[in-house]
Amino acid sequence: MGRAPCCDKANVKKGPWSPEEDSKLKEYIEKQGTGGNWIALPQKAGLKRCGKSCRLRWLNYLRPNIKHGEFSDEEDRIICSLFASIGSRWSIIAAQLPGRTDNDIKNYWNTKLKKKLMGMHMAPPSHHHHHHQRNSLKPPPFPSSSHHNYQNQPLIPSQPLSSLFKDLSSTYNRSFSSGFEIPHLSMTSNNFSNSTTNSSLFPTQECLVGSMQYNNYPVKKNSNQNNLLMFGSEGSCSTSSDGSCNQISYDRESNIKQEEMVFQSFDQDQNNQPMMLNYGNNNSGCSTGSAGHDHHHVINQWCERPDGFDHLGAENTLGYCDLEDVKQLISGGNNLNISVNGSKSNSLFSNVDENKTEEKVMYFY
DNA sequence: AAGAGCGGCAACCGCGCTACC
DNA sequence: CGGTAGCGCGGTTGCCGCTCT
């Protein structure tokens, strides 16, 4: 039994939007707002479009402060860093780049950035089949929600992440040895009614990934009392648990997405302690430092800190990871060594709930 | 000059999640 | 508590312009 269509497909227009449709939609939303119901919106606005189509058009093209055009080197770097860390979570990546949409970034990655990175190390395909080889550089398997899983991807390492960053480094004539960025994803919590989060309220734990020790990232437990892998803003070094969060909120004015994420449920470890994975570095620890860069404005709107520092607090605000550490992570069969709460594990996902995934080892493609 | 191939991007599609009834 | 509507996301497709042969 299939799902009922969201609209009457026979009576909706498809294809490119005309300027008239654009102005109708823009005008309606600017005056009336979305009303929290995209399905009903096109009829109210006098558009023969599917609600989903309207939403997409608004979010990707019509809403204020949308940035089109060339991506800066800094934006490239952020995209690459986050992609290397969390994979194709475009909406999350987009949240780090004000004015950019997930669709924009996705397209940019698929058509340009990926090739830029691959250019020096991978021979171009002999035959180009449009749209069919774009995913040849696969993201790292990400302990995703059930929404998207990577467990069915073939375990065939083809592109060491280290070389990927080597490419990037040479491309931009800079070294990533002190600037490899770790995902930095701010959160809000259901426990807080407003949008601003004091990130220090989130519990964190220490964790070793390869030679890197990470201890800045908060962890939360979901309502099922499973343990969650979360990337997040800096926090205290304490441990606690609270409710779940898993929603995207929007800046009231710009509709720019703000993220709060629950990524993956983990089993408890052998000591019956909550398991988590933090990203950080031996040297960075819970350090603080200079203020953030422009691309963190979105985050900073939501994760204010009284000291004025950004979330990871250092010059590179997303965290640090020495390139050698990255290489180390990639080497040895692309197998990450993880230590959680002092107990070593030889793969990132060895503690993943086996009912949810069969994949035990993190590979980079 | 023409057609095939390629690249870029807007838009569509299907599905998971969640709030609501 | 199950069913359903709506939302949001990532993957995919279609179209169009440019380049190459």
Automatic annotation (TrEMBL):
Compositionally biased tracts (Basic residues): 126-135
GO cellular component term of the entry, any: nucleus
PANTHER family on file: MYB-LIKE DNA-BINDING DOMAIN CONTAINING PROTEIN, EXPRESSED (PTHR48000:SF67), OS09G0431300 PROTEIN (PTHR48000)
Family matches, as InterPro entries: Homeodomain-like_sf (IPR009057), Myb_dom (IPR017930), SANT/Myb (IPR001005)
Region feature (Disordered): 121-153
Biased composition annotated in UniProt, kind: Polar residues: 144-153
CDD domains (UniProt xref): SANT
Main location: nucleus
Sequence ranges assigned to domain HTH myb-type in this UniProt record: 9-62, 63-117
This protein's name: Uncharacterized protein
Transmembrane regions listed in the UniProt entry: none
MF-aspect GO terms: DNA binding
Protein's cellular compartments: Nucleus
Every Myb-like domain range: 9-62, 63-113
Entry superkingdom: Eukaryota
SMART domains from the UniProt entry: SANT
UniProt signal peptide: none
Keywords: Activator, Developmental protein, DNA-binding, Nucleus, Repeat, Transcription, Transcription regulation
Originating organism: Prunus armeniaca
Any single Pfam family the record assigns to this protein: Myb_DNA-binding
